[in-house]
Known about the structure:
Elements: H1 2-30, E1 35-43, H2 52-74, H3 79-91, E2 112-118, E3 124-130, H4 136-146, E4 151-153, H5 154-163, H6 177-191, H7 195-203, E5 217-222, E6 228-234, E7 255-257, E8 262-268, H8 270-276, H9 278-289, H10 293-307, E9 311-317, E10 322-323, E11 330-336, E12 342-347
Parallel strand pairs: 3-4
Antiparallel strand pairs: 1-5, 1-11, 2-3, 2-6, 5-6, 7-8, 8-9, 9-10, 11-12
Helix pairs in contact: 2-3, 3-4, 9-10
Amino acid sequence: MMQRIRPLVAMFLLVGCFFYQLLNAQIADHSYKIAIVIHGGAGTILKANMALEMEKEYRDKLTEALNTGYKILKDGGTSIDAVEAIINIMEDSPLFNAGKGAVFTHEGTNEMDASIMDGRTLNAGAVAAVKHIKNPISLARMVMEKSWHVMLAGDGAEKFAQEQGMQLVDQEYFKTERRWKQLQQIINQDSKRDDSLKLERKKNPPSGKTNDSHGTVGCVALDKFGNIVAGTSTGGMTNKRFGRVGDSPIIGAGNYANNNTCGVSGTGDGEYFIRLNVGKDISDLMEYKGMTVKEASQTVIDKLTKLGGTGGVITLDKDGNIAMPFNTSGMYRGYMDENGKPVVEIYKE
């Protein structure tokens, strides 16, 4: 009897080894696909107006973010860890309109939004109008992983953060002289408008735009397991009022990820991005029309332009192909090339 069983055991062991090696080979196959693309906002960004020192600061910070995320992926980490780490770096920098560098509301406060989405499960988490969260993207991840909700807002989101052990920070942490001056400039401009112009403003986008008005930050990453994650974080629009929330925390608008198609993070006129459902539209064009990530991304930016909105997107598909179209004069953006070298770009040309 034992003589009959031994060959069967040996056969099962051989089959088991075969599938184990096959699984490892499949995992290894994904290693060449790791990819990252990031943005730090779009707007009127002209080389003629950019001091060399300031340009270097932007390039250095974007490079730091790319290198940090790439190391996580190269070492076998997940795309969600890479996205959170990259966005944390940009949230901690006063250069970008997110976290530390968030713009001011009309009342002189800072209200931040963020979201993150897992393309493997389509799970997502988002926070809106938070005032005391140092890294909103980390709280968005907590909402996704530690609650059954998708979006939490305001005081409720901050109470949830405290219950999860996240420490709140004082509003003073977010105050930067640069952003404060931008708010005062816009308020002064508005005070000089006559009644007819104020009436016109009610119909059209408000004058909450500065030279780098769309300073939202975002990242899309693909890990060696083939999983896409997209994250977006922002301080919103300078001089915003009445609890305004833009597209960044809205899944399908300013942020979207699906392993079958792509990941998207947007920056621009949030009201237009919401109306066009920009992130989901790009994914749908790929899924239902068979467009490439570049074709779908440019098609949707063309729609944005036709409707009267400005901004851009970063997109990354399941094969690691990227696209970064925008309709403004510049967009802070970067990616890792096929040799693992960071590429950072700012201007339209």
